[in-house]
Amino acid sequence: MSTFHKRGLTIERLLELEPLHGAQLITGEQNKRNRISRINIMGSPDIDQFVRPEEFVMTTGYLFKDNTIHLKKLIDALHDRGVTGMGIKVERFIDVIPEDLLSRARELSFPVIEIRPQTIFSDVVRVAMEEVFYQESEHLVTLYHRVQVFMDQLNRDHSLLDLLAGIEQMIGNPIVVLDFEEQLTAPLFEQVLEPKECLHLNHTLEAKAGIGKTTITIRDESFQCYCVPLVSEGLIHFVPYIACIETNVDLTEVDCMTLDKVSSMLSIELTNQTARKRIEQKYLNQFVKELVVGDIVSDYDIDLRAHSFDLDLKDKWFQTVILDLEGGVFSDVTAFQLFLKKMTMQSHGQVVGTSLDKAFVMLLCVKQKASIPNMLQIIETAVNRIVKKDGQRPLYQLYGGRAVQDIAHIKQSFNEAYHVKTIAKHNQLTAPVVNYDDLHVYQLLYHLPQTPEVAHYLEEIIGPLRSTRNDALYFETLDVFFKNNKNVRATADTLYAHYNTIVYRLEKISTLLGIDLQDAEACLELQLALKLRFTHLFKGG
């Protein structure tokens, strides 16, 4: 892997100039590609106070003819100041360059050039600076051309992939972008790296954004890179960026200048794209909401709107899932939509959603019904990771209705998911994912119609409790009593009541209902009646 390279006049190129004919690089061979931005001729012993980084210093040695020790100390000072190198004329005032000076220069890898006595410094300065100005003008012309090409692509409304392809063609190295929706776009790397490796690359580049040229590691190989943060509106929890990684050709200074220039224009373009997407997302949010509540009755309307959102709803299986978050994780609907986009990318299907009744509703769309459990697993893993990242306890649950194959039945799947949520909360079902099929006996009770026979059955079994002033207290006591496997002590602890108080209530309930709470058959029928009562209360009975 080559080192980071800047275009311009280098030590190596300086030695090729005609005025320095016969000059030799004595030390600092490994830094012969260091750039020279200007030439300085030493006129006083304390020149280290007047030099700038990337300068090349020349001396006749006159100032040090009687004190070469000071010349050795000067090497340290020039190196610390970022000076590119030093040229010393020999056979005029100094016969040879002192060995102790060369020894110190070798330790610092500091370039020292031995200049022949016939060399005219003014000629060196003139020719060298002409070369510097030529190189800099080349940079400006190249940069101007690249910016013009990029602006032309923006005006033609090219996609982000096309824009990145254009930059890659200019620079000759792969480009990576993390946009304002935390979406990673790395066309070349995504073809050779695994998803986990791309994720690691993103985290590495995000940490490098804004610190200039640096080194990163990919698959145990080091690469030079340059990463520029993109300017976004508002506060976000990540760092969007555009980065170039040196894998094909040397990453030059003009390449970095190109990224600096296009980053500002790309920031504006991504901001506009994000604004357009939010508007589109608002309408998609409404479309999904109407699908799950059954407000769209026209197939033509569904097809037209699905096509406008690039949704393929033909010959699909659908399942509605309610994501219930205690305390909340997503700051707003936009954050939820970004989450759904990631889920779509990670699964073999489409995931869209909306907010409804203080919960987030997801609609899973897949070609095969068998794909749904895997999608739910991906969603569960992602939610759990987000919750843990925010430092919260994983207080969330996913409630799923049954999968349906007809768009018209999506409403039914949503109603079932909502029913699952209500039943699960009432009965403290704590599994992270609860599907309609997990309700067991509640499925049977839920489908019982609200007939006079059902009402008569409830009245016969638990009617005496309904007619008392303490009906709510009695029903709560029975509910907790059965959930604690008829353990009176545990029931008292759960209700924060005295043990004897619970014993009294249970005896009163036994008397009112005319049953023995130790009778297994009587308790089974009572529990079924309580569950049926709750189900019918939920359904409005």
UniProtKB/TrEMBL annotation:
Stretches assigned to the PucR C-terminal helix-turn-helix domain: 475-532
One Pfam family named in its UniProt record: PucR
Every Purine catabolism PurC-like domain range: 14-131
Domain of life: Bacteria
PANTHER family documented for this protein: CARBOHYDRATE DIACID REGULATOR, DNA-BINDING TRANSCRIPTIONAL ACTIVATOR ADER
Protein name: PucR family transcriptional regulator ligand-binding domain-containing protein
Organism of derivation: Shouchella hunanensis
Lineage: Bacteria, Bacillati, Bacillota, Bacilli, Bacillales
